[in-house]
Design goal:
alpha/beta; Rossmann fold; eight-stranded mixed β-sheet; 16 helices; 10 strands; elongated; transmembrane helix; DUF2417; membrane
């Protein structure tokens, strides 16, 4: 027996042979200088990160087959950073929608601190554009487009120019106020944010495709092609809107360089400014200068034609002193806070006259709808009113038509699209319309401030204004001399207008004359017959006021 035996079994001989290869187990990972971690990890697998943690089963890692490029799991939304940007875009979209709703309300009624002296249409347009940019971003979030990014960058440059214009031009800055400035900054920030998000999603999409499929996809599915085409098309539309914004703001900035003929006076506790012009007193011995002829415009500012014949009468000595103003939103005046009735406008005029020391006495000359305002003013200052000249005046029975919903909606819609400048840019570029024409001439109807004023007028016409004019009819001094000059064309074509004109002759009991000027339009002074008749009647009223003639 061999005494070297161990329990009857001999040890195998290994001399001359290599030891068998030792396979290191994937579970035998080394930690901190050789200590194992208990076999809970593999050598080839990294810690889960923002990519792998969101994927059930850890697709795409070593040892797993690659995914198909059309697999829904191949998406940039696997990344936490991309998901955060999407949630943030949703938050911005909600904020933009909330701001849009508030600005929508302010186009009709101004909450405290939300009054824009320029009408607020630019701010509303900026918030609408911001909603569009964010909606498009969310719609095509996972399908980035390099072409759309380039268009958005150009758009951002234009919006930057718009913001600089609003901030650098004093009159634009005062008209738009903090609301216009904030919305212009917001829409610019949103556009830049959309470009950054699109670039980031493009990077994340490429990374996820490489990691999960082993390649970057160069083709696009039909759904993606439609999404990209839609995105580019809508972005180009947004770019055109930004171009129009820039053109309109530039034109507004240029128009503000026109010198104001009179003074701009703060009224309503410094809420807004109105423009008021009065000629100087030259000869204290001239009795005609003791009476001031005051002009109240109709559907267009006084400078849009009405002033021409009155200034001619002033130059030839028929009128001793001449004053006129621009109602809130007209000509050189700011838009007043809403709601705004004719009585509130009359109060603003009273305040402005008092601040420059104009106490009258006055002969009030008004045209069209301006007769409503002048009659209310006369009823509140009847001791200083020496005569009324009403030119084709608007009867109070017409107020319900003025307040019709269809007219109000049309005015609101024109205000909404006014920042595009469609009605102002084309005449300015191709018809050589001037600054004067846009402020108080033919093109003033598309001025955003005038649109706001007419919308305010429409909203209050059948409520506050109707009650105020009814009261004024009862309280107006009955002995005030009255002259009514009527358009012959309107009388022939509209029976109601003819009946209403006859009713206007009973505003006071002291009718001097009612003249129907044949072939004269609503703006009676535009015909030689109308011009001469107005000159004759204003001379007659001045003579009565200074005692040269009896009423």
């Amino acid at each position: 027996m061999n005494g070297n035996a161990d329990n009857g079994a001999s040890k195998p001989t290994t001399t001359g042979t290599s030891p068998p290869a030792v396979r290191v187990s994937k579970a035998d990972s080394v930690d901190n200088g050789g200590d194992t971690d208990g076999g809970s990890r593999t050598l080839h697998e990294d810690e889960p990160d923002e990519r792998t943690r969101l994927l059930a089963g850890h697709h795409g890692v070593s040892g797993q087959p690659p995914l198909d490029i059309d697999d829904p799991a191949v998406t940039p939304l696997n990344l936490w950073s991309i998901r955060f940007l999407r949630y943030f875009a949703l938050l911005l979209f909600a904020v933009a929608c909330g701001a849009w709703l508030i600005l929508l309300v302010t186009t009709f009624v101004n909450p405290p601190g939300m009054h824009s002296r320029g009408g607020g249409w630019f701010a509303f347009a900026c918030s609408t554009l911001a909603i569009g940019v964010l909606a498009l971003l969310l719609f095509s979030f996972t399908v980035p487009s390099r072409a759309a990014q380039i268009v958005q960058i150009v758009m951002a440059v234009l919006l930057l120019v718009d913001m600089i214009l609003v901030l650098s031009v004093p009159d634009l800055r005062s008209e738009e106020g903090w609301i216009g400035i904030t919305t212009s900054v917001f829409v610019l920030s949103v556009t830049i944010f959309a470009v950054i998000v699109d670039r980031t999603v493009e990077w994340g999409k490429k990374g996820e495709e490489e990691r999960l499929t082993g390649r970057t996809e160069t083709r696009r599915s039909l759904k993606e092609l439609l999404s990209v085409f839609s995105s580019i098309t809508v972005t180009i539309v947004f770019l055109l809107i930004a171009v129009l914004f820039t053109g309109t703001l530039s034109l507004r900035a240029y128009d503000h360089s026109l010198k104001t003929p009179g003074r701009r006076i703060w009224v309503d506790d410094h809420s807004y400014q109105v423009h008021l012009y009065c000629t100087s007193r030259h000869d204290t011995n001239n009795t005609r200068e003791n009476v001031t002829v005051f002009l109240e415009a109709g559907e267009r500012a006084v400078g849009g034609g009405m002033l021409d014949w009155a200034h001619d009468a002033y130059v030839n000595g028929t009128i001793g002193r001449l004053c006129y103003w621009d109602r809130p939103g007209y000509g050189f005046s700011d838009v007043a806070p809403s709601p705004l009735s004719a009585g509130m406008v009359a109060d603003a005029l009273s305040e402005a006259l008092a601040k420059i020391g104009e106490a009258g006495p006055f002969i009030l000359v008004s045209h069209g709808v301006g007769s409503i305002y002048s009659r209310i003013f006369a009823a509140r200052h009847d001791k200083n009113i020496k005569g009324l000249l009403l030119i084709d005046p608007l009867h109070e029975d017409y107020l319900p038509t003025l307040a019709s919903p269809s007219r109000g909606f049309l005015l609101w819609f024109r205000g909404v699209i006014s920042p595009l400048g469609i009605e102002t840019l084309i005449p300015a570029l191709f018809r050589s319309r001037t600054r004067e024409d846009r402020i108080f001439g033919r093109s003033s109807a598309s001025n955003p401030r005038l649109i706001s004023a007419k919308l305010q007028e429409s909203l209050a016409a059948n409520t506050f204004t109707k009650a105020e004019i009814t009261t004024s009819r009862e309280t107006l001094e009955r002995k005030i001399p009255l002259v009514v000059v009527t358009s012959g064309e309107n009388v022939k074509t509209d029976e109601r207008w003819s009946r209403w004109q006859k009713g206007m002759t009973k505003v006071t009991d002291n009718l001097i004359s009612w003249d129907i000027v044949s072939k004269a339009p609503h703006r009676v002074w535009e015909t030689p017959e109308g011009w001469n008749m107005l000159s004759k009647r204003i001379k007659q009223l001045v003579d009565i006021a200074i005692g040269k003639k009896k009423a």
